[in-house]
Amino acid sequence: MDLTRSEFLQATGAAIAAAGLPAASGGRTLLVPFSSAPYPHGSRLQGHVYQGRLYDAATHYMNSNTGIFIPDGWQVRNGAVDFIVHFYGWNHDIAATFSTYRLREQLVASKRNAILVVPEGPTNAPDSGFGKLELDKGGFRRFMTDVAAKLKELRFSSTDNIGRVVLTAHSGGYGGAGGALTRGDMNDSVSDVLLFDAAYGYFDAFADWARVPQHHLLSLFTGDTSTGNAALMGKLQAPTPNLYVRLADSMTLEQLQTRAPTFVLTSVAHDDLLQKYSWYSLFLQTTALDAIA
Q1: Whole domain around residue 260: which residue ranges?
Q2: Does residue 191 sit within a domain?
Q3: What is the CATH number of the domain that holds 129?
Q4: How does residue 22 score in pLDDT terms, banded at 50, 70 and 90?
Q5: Contact 198, 174 (CB under 8 A)
Q6: How many domains are contained in the chain?
Q7: In whole numbers, what is the pLDDT of the chain averaged over residues?
Q8: pLDDT of 18
């Protein structure tokens, strides 16, 4: 039976409470299941083994929920919806990602006119796999099409057209972002990729995408991913200077707003990168996303 908008919001509210999602001011949070979400997926039907421990499918790879945050004042831009899609790292889920890194609050502070989408990847497991969004041809496009259609169905949006897409990834979230760029069939829509100590793999995918002049790659890194970031720099380096390397303790918004590939070294702890100094908010301000009017 189809739900009315009011009935759906009541059901969504109950789901949010049951999932333990923290409250956040400045917008509306939804928790919506999608068949096109990362899991369940054939790659993890037998679970995943890490350091001799089995992370079983029933516990860690069956959650098809997606967290969606619509900031107050958000509007359709040029007949389309702009999105930020975040891929979290190891041993997290949507609730922990929202509460630990304050992504919703930082989106509000950035004043970007976009809807935040956080798909549930591996649920509290040491795993960088993102199922359908990483491994299936066109999987990322199907997922984003479903999200946009659901927002229109619920009357949060007047259109299901997809505009700009910003990919953000922390740590093991590189699997989702890299896979989306490799076979997600949406590279022309992806305007920016923001990596937070996430250069562990998919170097060719990130480099090939970043070579397009209109695309913007910004990678914040610690010693954990210095080798990976050096590999990315090597793939992007041209005969004439074409990228920037900065230090986090002296970086400015103006320096980061260049569309050239930019790499920022920091000594801040790996798990504090997004929220300690509100760098997630700062980095969103460097993207092609418009500000809320």
Answers
A1: 5-284
A2: yes
A3: 3.40.50.1820
A4: confident
A5: yes
A6: 1
A7: 93
A8: 36
User: Of 288, 251, 280, whose CA–CA distance to 82 is shortest?
Assistant: 288
Q: 173 lies in a domain?
A: yes
Whether cis (ω within 30° of 0) applies to the bond prior to 38 is no
pLDDT tens for 55-72 read 999 999 999 999 999 999
In a domain, 102, yes or no: yes
Q: Is the pTM of this model over 0.90?
A: yes
Whether 72 maps to a domain, the answer reads: yes
Express each pLDDT in 275-284 by its tens digit.
999 999 999 9
Q: Which of 132, 145, 121, 101 is nearest to 277 (CA)?
A: 101
